[in-house]
Amino acid sequence: MSDKDCDKGSCSALDVAHFKNALKQFQKLVEKKVTQKTEERLGLYVKDDDEIDYDKFHETVQALFGPEIKDYNVKAFFRKISSNLDAKTEWCEIFGYFIVESDAVSSQLNEENTVFLVSQKQQITHEGVKRRDVIKGIVKVPHLDFTVTSSQKGVLTIFNNQDTAWVTGCDFLTQLKRVVAVTERTVIVWDYKSKGSQSNCFVIKPMENGLLCVCTVTASDHLAKDNILMGDDGGYVNLLTVTSDDFGLKQSKDKKKSQFHVLDSKNFKIVKRKLHDDWVMKVKYISDLNCFGSCSIDSIHSFVLGDIKPVKEFSVPKGVNAFTYCGKSNVIVTGGYGILNI
């Protein structure tokens, strides 16, 4: 059928049919991913070219529904079905909407967002306005993916959703006196003492895998060096050593302008070790034991204690989501899906 022969009614019917078919394909994709994850946790799955990782999942979803699908909605959905195989999902979540029970809806009637529920509600402030201001106009520019607002006090602002990233963890560098944070592909070192236009921030990228958690090793006696442990979505625990020379902290002379530096990760020594067969949910250095612990939703390599080499390894059905150490009792408590282990 040509464009000329396609009237409004028939084209609409074709669009509906295409969308329904896309939903069927999406449901099959989700079921296949959940099946693979279930078999993997049971130790029955053999990885091959047919494995659905995040990149393949994201590519398939965009092919089905178009490039308008937001990355953070795809990531949220993928993490949900990967970490909780029994979770209830709805296709609308991939578009940023979710379905809740009537009681939950009634409890949110007094919230700001009463038209529809979305997966992410964000309050944005503008530092250029010191006193209370009121938005008088708002315009969405879809093809450029940004929103323009005008305020009562005469402030025009563009809010852009491009190049956003989730911060998946943070900690404090005790020797360098900086904050370290990780996103999915970057490590950020931030001088928290700087304010406003004098902010000083270093971004180390790209990282090979998606970073999910971070902690610092407090055993270093070197006054200008910190060790950073990071867990990623490939099952690796990464050790990154940073010094003041890496960031030129002593050489920074311009204190009037904001300093945002991007550093190539290839210039840093990063030691990585494969300890899990699934996402590393948490990594923590335990100074009393002089080693670190890491946990994963992997049922075989669920919890690992180690330094350079693994010392002890534990298997827990459905994996471990979190853990903590009590020095007084000398016990480690792990938490999984409604299960506590000591």
Automatic annotation (TrEMBL):
UniProtKB keywords: Repeat
Record has Repeat as a keyword: yes
Name of the protein in question: WD repeat domain 64
Segments crossing the lipid bilayer: none
Provenance organism: Apteryx owenii
Superkingdom per UniProt: Eukaryota
InterPro entries: WD-EF-hand_domain (IPR051242), WD40/YVTN_repeat-like_dom_sf (IPR015943), WD40_repeat_dom_sf (IPR036322)
PANTHER family: WD REPEAT-CONTAINING PROTEIN 64, WD40 REPEAT DOMAIN 95
